[in-house]
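Practice problem 4.
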């Protein structure tokens, strides 16, 4: 932000002042999302699944977001560790899979040095085979999903915050999996 002083008071250019309300509004909208848990029907679709695969996709939207250093390998390792700790078998040799997706963009402004904020979407979907009633065809369908949105001003531990958000989603899935597969 360009700031000058006149008589001891800070004076900001009008273009830089527009950034702050837009950033605040964006963060409020993103963080005010409701949190939903899986329905009983969604949870029941996990019954009988003996093992699952993990597929990670990332969309790091710009150079600013790339500076966070979050990698597919980190997310894959975090996800597998969380599932394994919950007693869920992970195997690359099975078809049902947990899709973990992360998208990150940075918000900046030409009059501001550096990044104002990061906005991200973390989503997990459990996909498995199903038979279409009307045709008898098999298809891969999403039977459980959850999404979280986040925004933050840049901090040193932003990487850890985003990875923790993904682990929370995976833990929610693991809890529902465990409930569906209780003896």
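Answer key:
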């Amino acid at each position: 932000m360009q700031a000058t002083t006149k008589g001891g008071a800070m004076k900001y250019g009008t273009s830089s002042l527009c950034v702050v309300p837009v950033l605040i509004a964006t963060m409020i909208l993103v963080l005010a999302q409701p949190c939903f848990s899986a329905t009983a029907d969604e949870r029941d679709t996990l019954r009988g699944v003996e093992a699952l695969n993990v597929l990670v996709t990332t969309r790091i939207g710009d150079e600013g977001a790339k500076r966070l250093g979050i990698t597919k390998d980190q997310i894959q390792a975090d996800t597998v560790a969380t599932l394994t700790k919950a007693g869920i078998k992970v195997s690359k040799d099975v078809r049902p899979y947990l899709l973990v997706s992360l998208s990150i963009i940075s918000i900046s402004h030409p009059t501001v040095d550096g990044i104002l904020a990061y906005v991200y979407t973390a989503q997990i979907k459990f996909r498995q085979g199903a038979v279409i009633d009307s045709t008898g065809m098999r298809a891969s369908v999403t039977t459980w999903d959850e999404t979280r949105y986040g925004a933050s001003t840049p901090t040193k531990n932003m990487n850890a915050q985003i990875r923790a958000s993904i682990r929370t989603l995976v833990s929610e899935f693991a809890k529902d999996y465990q409930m569906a597969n209780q003896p």
